[in-house]
Amino acid sequence: MERDTAKHVWISELLSGSLIPKEDSPTEIMLKDGSTINRARIYGVAVSTNELVVDDSTGSILIRTFENAFDTKIGDTVLVIGRPRIYDNQCYILGEIVKKIDPKWLEIREKIHPRQDPISIIRALDTGEGADYQKVVNKIGEDKVIHLLSTGEIFETRPGKLRILE
Predict the structure, then answer these.
(1) Could you tell me if 94 and 38 are in contact, meaning their C-beta atoms sit under 8 angstroms apart?
(2) CA Rg value for the chain
(3) 79-103: b or e for each residue (b if 16 or more CB lie within 10 Å)?
(4) Which domains does the chain have, with CATH numbers?
């Protein structure tokens, strides 16, 4: 059996994904963009070492292993490769590899796979008459759309069309 490739993802992408339970293959998480992932590669900073918690500036996630032997300190830059899991509505990574790395890898990670903030996504989807509500929800999630509407950063020009307040 061939090992699945670990995909580069931001922690926020994992946390906003939904579980796809499968009996005959590893559990997968469907991301907001529609892609699925069953092995993740995350670069971040260790923010807790009692139970390893990694933060990549988009979110924090718990890293679990059966050995539970992490040689990390708070503030260490780490690379985590593992399988995303959800238990009791909490997403975590079942760590296969946890390795200290040079902090410059975080800069390289940002250049290779830049994170997209919701405003830039809406701006890209706006055709001049507003971005389609359903397309925006598919890209960033309904909770973020509702938050942006309630804070007044975006507004509905007419039903189903969103614009940025500029």
Answers:
(1) no
(2) 18
(3) bbebbbbbeeeebbbbbeebeeeee
(4) 7-112 (2.40.50.140), 118-164 (no CATH)
Q: Rounded to an integer, what distance in angstroms lies between the CA atom of residue 108 and that of residue 35?
A: 23
Task: Write out the two tokens for 85.
Answer: 């899991």
pLDDT per residue of the chain (166 residues) written in tens, 0 to 9: 577 888 888 888 888 877 777 776 667 888 776 778 889 999 999 998 778 899 988 889 999 887 767 788 888 999 999 999 888 878 889 988 889 988 888 788 777 766 667 777 888 888 888 888 888 888 777 777 887 888 888 888 888 888 887 7
Number of Cβ atoms within 10 Å of the Cβ of 126: 16
Residue 132 CA to residue 32 CA, distance in Å, equals 16
Beta strands 53-55 and 40-48 are: antiparallel
40-48 and 7-8: which strand pairing?
parallel
Is residue 84 classed as helix, strand or coil in its secondary structure? strand
**Does this model's pTM top 0.70?**
no
Distance CA 155, CA 133 (A): 11
Find residue 42's DSSP bridge partners: 80
